[in-house]
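Annex B, item 7. Sequence and structure tokens for protein A, then protein B.
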Amino acid sequence: QVQLVESGGGLVQAGGSLRLSCAASGRTFSSYAMGWFRQAPGKEREFVAAITWSGGSTYYADSAKGRFTISRDNAKNTVDLTMNSLKPEDTAVYYCAVKGGSYAYILSRSHEEYAYWGQGTQVTVSS
């Protein structure tokens, strides 16, 4: 049973920082790309960032560039999202995900290409 569990969400003032963490269990994902997505109320789920299995390549949404950093530790089967200079528009439920399929090692911003999802963690940024 594959399980992804996010943690680290909470309430923060605009300009503040949070570090989200995702712990994967049930199998080893060391050869799979992993990503973070978010979904605000009334909006579609959107891509935030992704990282290759080695951590050598990353991919960010324009909204995350320069403020967010994705990292992973394959020995611990974790992927983190460090978020700085948070804005009220960053308020959403944040989900970590693992790619699936034959090209699971390739970075992607399409949520349809991710096979495993966590339950999400709420991030609320107050103005």
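Protein B:
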Amino acid sequence: QVQFVESGGGLVQTGGSLRLSCTASGFSIEDFAIGWFRQAPGKERIMFSCFSTDGSSFYYQDSVKGRFTMSRHSANNTLYLQMDSLKPEDTAVYYCATAGRLSRCYSHYGSALMALYEGDIWGRGTQVTVSS
């Protein structure tokens, strides 16, 4: 079955850290550019970063720049999201998904959103809760 499985979420205090995992099943993590998304309670799901197959990273939200870092471990078929200096506003369900089933992320956020389509592969998400 072709899918992503996210893990690593949980409850953490403000200023703490978590590392999320996005493990690919049924295909190689190196096959596609992969986006990270999050959906806060009562809000729309947004794409905040993307990792290209060549290893380049794009962070679309200013609020995560300098705090969140993506890395790929091909042997584990996993993309990681290291989240540091967490804030209550980071509370959300976090998802990973292919970014339009392309190999490279768009540097422009609007273009990245336009690339998404119904054939993208998604995970079911993992809950991150940051307490104040």
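Comment on protein B: The longest helix spans residues 109-115.
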